Amino acid sequence: MRKIRTTRPGLAALGLFLAANAAAQQPAPKAVVDHQALVAELKDSFVERGLAKLDRIDQSTMQRACSIADAGGEMPAETALKITQEAAANVKPPADGNYIGDWRQGEKVAQNGRGLQFSDTAKTINGGNCYACHQMTKAEISFGNIGPSLYQYGKLRGNGKEMVAYTWNKIYDSHATMPCSNMPRFGAAGILTEQQLKDVMALLLDPQSAVNDDQAKP
């Protein structure tokens, strides 16, 4: 029987062919997707309805930087620092200087998942929908785990001046403490009112709140 002998150049050519073929079948890196074309396609795929307008697709410089990072690109350290610094600079403290409201009202905000949806109206009271991502009280057994547990938040961390300021900044604009955070920017984006922010602060920090005292009754 005649043997077929493959030469080394033949093996090299075969290797190059297989590598090229495999590369051709790989999807393009997400980071190189045509951004403008993607935005145009998204706007062409959706229609405005109620409060849900197409301008929600438009991205700020910060959001664009975060999208690139999420797509596999690397965010330069100076960009991350710029995001947190700009967000922190735009945080507005309470007009009266009082950060703590009514924790019982804060619990209602945390439980409320309504607001800014196409089925809502301008009169709909927005909620924080906090339990979608966090455990907050022992009594509530239906909660998400995208974010860390906030159960006994104030009991574990205290309610000193620095912790109050940190918590307010985090709720007002989460990018002030972590660039590209998944947490909604409740104050900066106008999702919650100043009074609602105060009430959520009370829920987290008031020693008598349901977050910090298992015996508390909302």
TrEMBL record:
<protein>
    <submittedName>
        <fullName>Sulfur oxidation c-type cytochrome SoxX</fullName>
    </submittedName>
</protein>
<feature type="domain" description="Cytochrome c">
    <location>
        <begin position="101"/>
        <end position="208"/>
    </location>
</feature>
<dbReference type="GO" id="GO:0009055">
    <property type="term" value="F:electron transfer activity"/>
</dbReference>
<keyword id="KW-0349">Heme</keyword>
<dbReference type="InterPro" id="IPR016823">
    <property type="entry name" value="Thiosulf_SoxX_II"/>
</dbReference>
<keyword id="KW-0732">Signal</keyword>
<dbReference type="GO" id="GO:0020037">
    <property type="term" value="F:heme binding"/>
</dbReference>
<dbReference type="GO" id="GO:0046872">
    <property type="term" value="F:metal ion binding"/>
</dbReference>
<keyword id="KW-0408">Iron</keyword>
<dbReference type="Pfam" id="PF00034">
    <property type="entry name" value="Cytochrom_C"/>
</dbReference>
<dbReference type="InterPro" id="IPR036909">
    <property type="entry name" value="Cyt_c-like_dom_sf"/>
</dbReference>
<dbReference type="InterPro" id="IPR030999">
    <property type="entry name" value="Thiosulf_SoxX"/>
</dbReference>
<keyword id="KW-0479">Metal-binding</keyword>
<dbReference type="InterPro" id="IPR009056">
    <property type="entry name" value="Cyt_c-like_dom"/>
</dbReference>
<feature type="signal peptide">
    <location>
        <begin position="1"/>
        <end position="24"/>
    </location>
</feature>
